[in-house]
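Try this one yourself first.
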């Protein structure tokens, strides 16, 4: 009996030569784990980091933890309808959003879905959420002012376009109000993005009403990831807001982004990292918490003219506990940003609003952006204010002080009163110069503290028709002769309400 020819009778080399090899990417996977905000998937043979994954309930997840055994994904929507064994699908697309002019005046979530009841956003361009920051050679110097309209900031902690200035303080000390006032004070050529992270819906609604009533909504984009939204959306919110702003920066225009606040962002990321079984570090935050904030804020810059000359200014807000600015997240952000505006709970309780602690606040690059006329008036203000606070602390001991020291204390009290400012009442640079010049020149010294506000309003109204103030060039330093002329005009305006020998009563 003869045996028929089979593959076993052929040399192994001939058999291998007839085989073909191919790798098939599996576009689907199965849910093997489900937690509050994250899912565990098994079945993908290949997937990219930060790739969107389509879920059977119509929402998406973000690939965030890729290992040889499984894929951990962050939910960007509800987990309703998901269960162990559900099938998900790759989209082969990184997380991105629509950008462009159509976004202005809209209220959106971090995936650019409308929250204002209007039509869906459809534009020609899309930007990835986590874009790379501009290279060093693409950046230019910060030289133009971003005026907030707030005397205490513009005079002592000036901010420039393209700067990253941190706002930090305890809860309910006025941090958000300062940021909103800055948006209200911007001209039409500055596109503003307000990013609400983990805030209450009532607070977000109030801010939207303020922007609408102030006429700023037409040039503002609101990105909302409230405290009721999944932590994945809260995590992506600041990246989405920055991508929206980068579009305008790359068009050669100026943009301002307010992150309110990055404390909630860090907590959302900590929650996600712990659910993904990443090793916890200090205060249970993952080891890359510094990296994700640095990667975010490094995208704010002033571009060179050869790159279009646009700018992106960042105002991140962070919450402190018991005014502890040395805590983990605040110190991380202080080291990343170009300065900080520190709010004091003690000043807030004493009614010194805005409650900015000028001694602890700093702007590392903004001083170069002040108008020369403004700089000539406010140059020594911060130093004099710090000396006044030192004298005031010394005088509390009840020590006898001479007349010169007493006069410096009275002058300092009036300067501090001038730096007070009502909410949503921004002032122009000339109005601020008039108030500061009158205070530092001693024109308010004869007045009681209770009448300083009325006197300030009087001189600010009067400079509108004063020849010297109309001719004042902000781009030129105030000479000594011009300074005398301006002080004389201010003195003439205050003369009717200044009575010789009148004290503080």
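Now uncover the answer:
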């Amino acid at each position: 009996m003869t045996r028929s020819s089979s593959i076993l009778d052929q040399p192994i080399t001939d058999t291998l030569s007839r085989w073909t090899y191919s790798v098939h990417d599996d576009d689907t996977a199965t849910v093997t784990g489900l937690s509050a905000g994250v899912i565990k998937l098994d079945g993908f043979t290949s997937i990219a980091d930060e790739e969107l994954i389509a879920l059977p309930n119509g929402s998406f997840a973000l690939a965030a933890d890729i290992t040889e055994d499984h894929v951990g994904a962050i939910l960007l929507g509800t987990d309703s309808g998901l269960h162990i064994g559900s099938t998900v699908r790759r989209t082969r697309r990184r997380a991105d959003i629509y950008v462009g002019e159509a976004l202005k005046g809209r209220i959106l979530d971090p995936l650019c879905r409308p929250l204002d009841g209007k039509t869906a956003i459809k534009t020609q361009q899309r930007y990835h959420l986590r874009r790379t920051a501009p290279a060093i050679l693409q950046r230019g110097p910060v030289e133009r002012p971003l005026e907030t309209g707030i005397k205490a900031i513009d005079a002592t902690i000036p901010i420039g376009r393209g700067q990253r200035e941190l706002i930090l303080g305890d809860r309910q000390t006025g941090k958000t109000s300062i940021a909103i006032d800055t948006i209200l004070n911007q001209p039409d050529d500055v596109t503003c993005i307000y990013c609400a992270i983990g805030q209450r819906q009532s607070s977000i609604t109030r801010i939207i009403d303020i922007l609408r009533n102030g006429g700023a909504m037409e040039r503002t984009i609101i990105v909302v990831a409230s405290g009721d939204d999944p932590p994945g959306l809260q995590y992506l919110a600041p990246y989405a807001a920055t991508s929206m702003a980068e579009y305008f920066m790359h068009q050669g225009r100026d943009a301002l982004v307010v992150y309110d606040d990055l404390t909630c962002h860090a907590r959302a990321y900590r929650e996600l990292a712990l659910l993904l079984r990443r090793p916890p570090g200090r205060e249970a935050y993952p080891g890359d918490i510094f990296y994700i904030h640095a990667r975010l804020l490094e995208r704010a810059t002033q571009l060179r003219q050869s790159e279009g000359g646009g700018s992106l200014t960042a105002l991140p807000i962070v919450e402190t506990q018991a005014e502890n600015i040395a805590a983990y997240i605040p110190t991380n952000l202080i080291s990343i940003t170009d300065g900080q505006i520190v709010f004091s709970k003690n000043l807030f309780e004493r009614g010194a609003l805005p409650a900015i602690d000028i001694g602890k606040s700093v702007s590392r690059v903004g001083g170069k952006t002040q108008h020369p006329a403004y700089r000539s008036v406010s140059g020594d203000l911060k130093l004099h204010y710090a000396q006044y606070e030192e004298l005031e602390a010394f005088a509390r001991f009840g020590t006898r002080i001479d007349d010169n020291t007493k006069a410096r204390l009275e002058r300092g009290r009036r300067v501090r009163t001038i730096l007070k400012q009502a909410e949503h009442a921004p002032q122009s640079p000339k109005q601020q110069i008039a108030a500061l010049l009158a205070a530092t020149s001693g024109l308010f010294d004869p007045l009681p503290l209770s009448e300083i506000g009325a006197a300030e309003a009087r001189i600010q109204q009067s400079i509108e028709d004063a020849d010297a103030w109309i001719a004042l060039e902000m781009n030129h330093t105030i000479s000594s002769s011009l300074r005398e002329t301006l002080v004389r005009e201010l003195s003439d305006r205050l003369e009717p309400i200044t009575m010789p020998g009148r004290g503080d009563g």
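Discussion: The longest strand covers residues 311-319. Residues 231-250 form the longest helix (20 residues).
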